Amino acid sequence: MKKWKDILLAMVAMVLIAAVSAAAEAPLILDLRPDNNNPSAPVMGDHLRFWSTIMNTGADPIEGLVAWISLVEIDPGNEQPVDLEDWSAHKAVTGATLEPGQSLRTDWPMRLIKGGDYRVVVSVTDRGSHTVFTSPTIQFSVRQKPVLQAGRVLPVAAGVPLLIIGLMVFNKTRQRRKKVQL
Amino acid sequence: MKTHWTIAYKESAQMLRSQRGLLWVLAFSGLLSAFSLLLVSNTELSLLDNAQVVYMMSGTVLAAGALLAAILGSDAYAGEKERGTLVPLLCAPISVTALLTGKALGMLTAWGVMFAEATPYLWAVGASGQNLGAALLYLALFGTPVVLGFGYLAMAVSARTGSVLASLLSTITLLMLAASPFLIGPGLRGTAIGRALDAVNPFAGALNTFDSVIIDSEPFSAQFARLLLVVVWLGLCLLAARRSAARPNFQ
Hints:
The complex is a heterodimer. Chain A contains two helices and nine strands; from the N terminus they run H-E-E-E-E-E-E-E-E-E-H. By secondary structure, chain A is an alpha+beta fold. In chain A, the strands form two sheets. In chain A, strands 3, 4, 5, 7, 8 and 9 form a six-stranded antiparallel sheet that branches. A three-stranded antiparallel sheet of chain A has the order 1-2-6, with no helix packed on it. The termini of chain A are far apart. Mean pLDDT of chain A is about 85; it is low at about 20-25. Chain B has one domain (about 5-40, about 50-245). The longest helix of chain B is centred in the first third of the chain and has 33 residues, at about 50-80. Chain B has helices spanning about 5-15, 20-40, 50-80, 85-90, 95-125, 130-160, 165-180, 180-185, 185-190, 190-200, 200-215, 225-245. Classes of the chains: A alpha+beta, B mainly alpha. The interface of A and B includes residues 86 and 156 of A.
């Protein structure tokens, strides 16, 4: 029995070693950093910028490279991937080719639409490999900001129709007076 | 006073002094009030920022303006015919151009009233955000030709068919088709057919400009092609209205 356990352990170890060595042979380095001008305590509506650097450390060119940015909300009870539709117009770099030793630096601008805690990550894959490489994640918090001020909307929403009703009543009264005078 | 000014004055008075016209103004303010109250009370609003709200409200104002123009335009000739006033009007010493210009100026006044009415609402929802001034400017710049174009088109159909109902049905159906980009999501508009429709649809041109200017803060130079599209739309509708107004159906 102990012999079988040893064999099993040895097999698991071999798989792990193979996985680690495969990771060590990753043909690229992927880095992600926030821009120096990013606000330290961002509020909804602010803009953030991230810089990714993809470097081909292998001996062969990387062709058909695709890099994309992902955003994940990590608020307790509200953990979910974020649809970047409103957040960023620049969501991916596609079709680039990286020669050995060459690097590709890309900026990822983002407009903060909603308050909460988020993690951002850039992923890269290419035409040939069957692997997706991911950058280190960056975490940031966005402070909530009231978008519409009820104090300004309510008087307008109630006042304008009342003004028009007043105008209609005035108009009607004037017409009646004219009829009476005639 | 020139003839077209007299007609314009009569048409504008119908909008501003009659209870019927004021009822429309009230209904429009009710729509904008409901819309802004809905936005204030929406707990999911944090997904939208002020610019997005101003964009949505600008699109609503444009759609309501085009609807009013379609109604007024449909009534312009066919309404006169149905009330029995078209023949006397055509027998009076009024040129076709003066009649058309007068009716168009009346429509323009109605659009002006709607624009003025929408301004405090746009201010209320957008003052703490970005590009409110640009929103108002581009709503006037792009909204006016789109609205007038629908008015002229309705006039053309109204004069050609002599029926308010036929004109209303056809113009409003076309307006719904043109305004469909406001209803369907960007995903559907991203298809080849969606893009092709956007390229020839003046309503979509105006909406895309609002998006570009209000949300993305893009400059005027990026809007030139769309401005050309709405101006061409206005020109074509004016030509159609002139042709039909020269030979209105009063049988």
